[in-house]
# Entry
Amino acid sequence: MTSFFNPFSLPILFLSILTFLSLTAHAADPVHLYTVCENTTFSADNSIYQSNLNSLLSSFSSNANVDFYATTKGGNTSDPVFGLSNCRGDVTRQLCRECVEAAVKELTSKCSREKVAVTWYDESFLRYSNRSFLTTVDERPMFGLLNTQNVTDQDKFNQLVNTSMIALLTDLAREISDVSTGAKKFGTRQVNISAFQTLYNLLQCTPDLSGADCYSCLLDAINLVPWCCGGKQGGRIVFPSCNIRYELYPFYRMATTTPQPSPGLQPLLPGLQPPPPDSVGRPKGKGKISPVIIIAIVATIAASVVLVILAYCFLRRRARKKSDAINEESPKQSDGLLNYHAASEISADLAVESLQFDFVTIEAATDKFSDDNKIGEGGFGKVYKGMLLDGKEVAVKRFSSKSLQGLEEFKNEIILIAKLQHRNLVRLLGFGIEGEEKLLVYEFMPNKSLDIFIFDSKRSPLLDWKTCYNIISGIARGLLYLHEDSRLKIIHRDLKPSNVLLDHDMVAKISDFGMARIFYEKQNIANTKRIVGTYGYMAPEYAMEGVFSVKSDVFSFGVILLEIISGKKNSGFYLTEHAQTLLTYAWRLWCEDKVLEFVDNFLMESCSTLEIVRCIHIGLLCVQEDPQDRPNMSTVVALLGSESIALPKPRHPAFSVAKFIQMDEFSVNELSFSSIVPQ
# Structure
């Protein structure tokens, strides 16, 4: 198994044991992370709102030992204030109370006149606002924390973090799926990397959210991890409505009963060395402890930890098997009814019954969904290669029954793509639905997706400039069809290289319409509270404010165009020696008249200099921060098809898109803390 630890780290076992000890200790003061006071809304000292706010903060102090507390003050007045506090799912009542009390003091001292404020501690957070936010997903303001230590094999580790987080999210979604609000929406998972390395994950939502909203919030946070913490030994993403964290040491309490705290121990913070032996709980005035005793204590603690983990895993596995057996013996009729209505609704919307495949036919085509036929996997489920009885090759998307997104995305994709026919859109051949199974059948794309070529050092040389130019033009024409030429006006909202498929002739075909939205004939803009898509390809107005339009897709297209030409990922370009993002790097070279340095070396061998510089120019026009400055796709297609059309001068690209600003390190209790990266 590949080792992910930095070779200069201290022995893993000793670090884990010390960290385990620290988790049972009672820290002198709660660890403060971040505070935001929205300085755009103020209240007068003697105002009704200020009086309501004082009353609200006082109620938090009196209810500080409650894991989750939400209240409203002044509901009958014109200036009500809404508040919420939530402690981490594993902390003791005593520590929860101390954290909430500290949060009240923090907001009282730093945000005394602001109408909107939030403060986070390591074990809890508290927020208030002049608007009602209960049962609503809020992802702003947000911030990230990253461990300053790197891992050695970053690609494998990043993949492990993502898959383990998604697996934990799936387990948590199953537990809360039947509970709208009130459940303790908190979960942890340990994944063994090697005999001496374990990855620890934690997910949590505020209990007021529904199961579906909790799922979507956590999924958005997981998608943001590469921007914050890619290749780091630990990190976290924190939203007002949910938060996630991973580390290579146990930073949460894994036992249901926490031992009484021992004085003198402080929690280990990510990226730090363990405290020296003299500081680890040694009674004052005593002599040195014998090495034999130290070894015996360490061995005992290590054995206890292993036994607790093994017992936990055994009980959890037995409970899961029992639950699965009960579910098999007593299937829910409501599931079958739901899927019957779903199939009827889809057929009614399409008015084309011939699109529906029998499940047995699809199962036979994929050899019962054999792993040998699996060609892809995502948050929705898996994709398999199949062959129908007439010899036609197909790709089958099998939605996971564990995903809360499945049914809505399934219906959305069928209803949309079945009504669309264009050379640069993937063709839907049909669908299947039976019980919990939801299947989509597409034409098979032998060359898979665009990201496999442009980001793979072995495959990227296979793309010459002519092929890349045709792919860029194909994506542009596909978007133009969606925005203007089809009978529907459609915003894709999740355009990225992995959603651009390539056929036998390397013709680009846009796929995955699960997140797409239809606009009315005269509608030009829309707003949503649920941000979906992939950070790095989202337009700033969408990522920050939930506002989307055709110009959102134009921005995504511009990012892909620049990625194709440079051979570099926008999401993997964070804080390199060149610039903060791929977009800022392209802009800097453009301004310095060194734009050819941006081009991938393999493309330089086959490209037309004037043509590739023009494409970079178009890409920069598409990623401008103001949506009104970006061209429509009809203009983009025209610019790509003619060298005689003059190009306007581009303005600054959107620096703020999923951008994290690394702040100076700060200290807590004289210990250096992880770098904080807010947005």
About this structure: The chain has five domains: 12-25+143-247, 32-134, 291-328, 334-443, 457-641. The chain has a mean pLDDT of 78. The longest helix spans residues 291-329. DSSP finds 18 helices and 24 strands in the chain.
